[in-house]
Amino acid sequence: MPASSLAASPSGAPPANCVESQQQQHDQQQQQQQQQQEQQQQQQEEDEGFGFAAEVQQQLQQAAAAMKGHSVVSVSSLSAAAVAALLLAAKKLKCMYTRKDPALRHTLEGKVVATAFFEPSTRTRCSFEAAALRLGAGVISNPDLKVASSVKKGETLEDTVRMFAAYADALVLRHPEKVSSSSSSSSSSSSSSSSSRGRQLRLRRFSAVWLRLGDGPQQQQQQQQQQQQQQCVLLSGGDGSGEHPTQALLDLFTIAEQQQQWFAAAAAAAIRMQQQQQQQPQQQPQQQLQQQQQSPIPQLALAFWGDLKYGRTVHSLALLLARFGVRLFFIPLEGFEPDGEFINQVRTLFEQQGLDPEAFCCFSQSLEAVLPSVDFLYVTRLQHERLNPAAAAAAAAAAAAPAAPAATAAATAAAAAKGDGVRITAELLHACAKPTLKVLHPLPRLQELSPNVDPTCFSLYFSQAANGVFVRMALLCLCLKGEI
Q1: Using CA atoms, how far apart are residues 327 and 362, in angstroms rounded to an integer?
Q2: Taking every annotated instance into account, which residue ranges of this chain make up the domain Aspartate/ornithine carbamoyltransferase carbamoyl-P binding (predicted)?
């Protein structure tokens, strides 16, 4: 009798081991098909970007190429097209990372990125370093230059940075002093002390060197020669209570991921308006608004809550969102209201678009009243490290004493430190907010945001933090190469 007949069952069915082998092959084929479908979907998402029109895509490519060699110390130094190009690059890099594209680790091969931090940092420094490493660049890490460098011996900031410029292709700098690098904020307050004015002027001169703003032909020629030998770009990791531009970019990227249709329309409108302003500078804002209304943009609203005076992330993000027509609500803790000069800058951006600054830049004392009207809530902690010694001492004294009814800045800080202050909770959000509201926070958080929000549908802040790697990968790529 043939062997095959002996192996078969009496009913003529194939042997069990054969059936098992066929099932394994079938499972493997299904798994491969599923992986291929996922890769195709990721590729499609990468190709589509945020749904920009073809003519906008071309402008974004030009803006990306123009970013090469560009330093970023303020959101004001970036055009609307550059912002959109950065976010589109971040989306593509995120897709490449998700599908484990091996080309990523060779993108910045041979480049060196240095992080020079004069203040503590977890997310900004580590995400920049992770971004550089994932792109194949080398990293010079300096988590505390105040202690572990020649700064402790008295070396000036300028000399320290010049050394980094010789070692690296890009420098990420965080410094406790507020830098006024734009012309709109170049003059210091008349009430500032002479030493404070001296520090601000020193940092402005330092910033000007990096922005290649020479004062004369000879200096420009020297800078051009240095630029030919080596060009090191400066990326701000935060300057005191001033700005945090890269945080604002990752915040906007997180918002854009949630509101892709809005971002595609808002970015296209902002780019178009910027071009019109360059071509027809005398055009009235109302005429610009009428042209913009031909292709209406979905309305978006965001509320800032917490320390809006010292929170540098608030300053950068508000200036960025205003350029894209987002309605802003400011709900500061008492004693931590934003500066009038900053608010005037935000309102001017709305006026330039023909938008009513009173309607698009609003203040409120009630978080509960605003929550039903906004799509995003941006929460910030109290910046205890920004308080002057007298205020810090008062806060410490207030924390040791029973809570007083007076809501001074020191008392507010003390109450928050004790956990007695107002905080964002899941109960508050479920009672007052839209079901689709998303909560953002630059982190770290203290008592202002309850952990019971973490598992809810409102939480977006951990995804927001994770996006920092991809946005900073995009910054490094465009500033060093002008492309991915």
Answers
A1: 8
A2: 72-257
pTM over 0.85: no
- Domains of the chain by range and CATH? 54-181+230-242+474-481 (3.40.50.1370), 245-276+297-384+423-465 (3.40.50.1370)
**Which single residue is written with the structure tokens 């951990």?**
462
Q: In 10 A of CB 30, how many CB atoms? A: 10
The answer to whether 243 touches 236, Cβ cutoff 8 Å, is yes
Q: Which of 244, 245, 246, 191 is nearest to 383 (CA)?
A: 244
CA distances to 238, 336, 388 from 392, rounded to whole Å, are 22, 14, 6
- Cα separation, 63 vs 53, in Å, equals 15
> Of 297, 344, 301, which is closest to residue 321 (Cα–Cα)?
301
- Asked if 345 contacts 184 with a C-beta cutoff of 8 angstroms, the reply is yes
In the numeric block, the tokens 């920049």 are attached to 128
Q: Residue 284: its pLDDT value, please? A: 57
pLDDT at 214: 34
Q: What is the CA radius of gyration of the chain?
A: 26
258: tokens are: 């949630």
**CA-based nearest residue to 86, from 319, 227, 310, 249:** 249
